[in-house]
């Protein structure tokens, strides 16, 4: 019987150039999208967020080292991003990448399609690859994410 494992990329497959400067990460709270009646699919989502006068807990920019997880960087910045296991086995920390690239060094929860097509990332094990990226955090409140957490979890 073939067993299909979820998408996993080992650290060894990802070459981290330690000389690269930190990545600039623009973040947005999924709850702010709901409160403002925006849609996560909106092309101008981050432009609207930048103009909305949101609190820095909901929207802002932080620098993240290439070998640092997005969740850890958020912790260090004093932000309160949700998490539970910190080891890629739940989906409490899930975010949706809207621009740029960030890779997980392990993933024991998300299916390949959720990573590749829906751009979901477990922020506790996900480090930036591109110089700039945009991510919606607290995406566990998306209906789809809530469903998979309930059914898989
Ligand atoms: S906190 Fe559980 S997968 Fe990230």
UniProtKB/TrEMBL annotation:
Sorted UniProt keywords: 2Fe-2S, Electron transport, Iron, Iron-sulfur, Metal-binding, Transport
Entries under Pfam families matching the protein: Fer2
SUPFAM superfamilies hit by this protein: 2Fe-2S ferredoxin-like (SSF54292)
Cofactor(s) named in the record: [2Fe-2S] cluster
UniProt KW Iron keyword: yes
Residue span, 2Fe-2S ferredoxin-type domain: 50-141
NCBIfam families: Frdxn_Halo
The protein's name: Ferredoxin
Organism of this sequence: Halalkalicoccus paucihalophilus
């Amino acid at each position: 019987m073939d067993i299909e494992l979820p998408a996993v990329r080992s650290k060894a497959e990802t070459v981290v150039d330690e000389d690269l400067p930190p990545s600039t990460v623009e973040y947005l709270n999924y709850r702010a999208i709901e409160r403002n009646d925006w849609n996560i699919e909106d092309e101008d989502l981050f432009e609207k967020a930048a103009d909305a006068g949101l609190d820095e807990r909901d929207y802002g920019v932080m620098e993240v080292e290439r070998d640092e997880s997005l969740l850890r960087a958020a912790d260090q910045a004093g932000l309160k991003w949700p998490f539970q296991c910190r080891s890629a086995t739940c989906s409490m920390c899930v975010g949706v990448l809207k621009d740029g690239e960030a890779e997980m060094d392990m993933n024991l929860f998300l299916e390949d399609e959720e990573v590749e097509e829906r751009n979901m990332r477990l922020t506790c094990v996900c480090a930036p690859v591109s110089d700039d990226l945009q991510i919606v955090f607290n995406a566990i409140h998306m209906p789809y994410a809530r469903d998979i957490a309930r059914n898989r979890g």
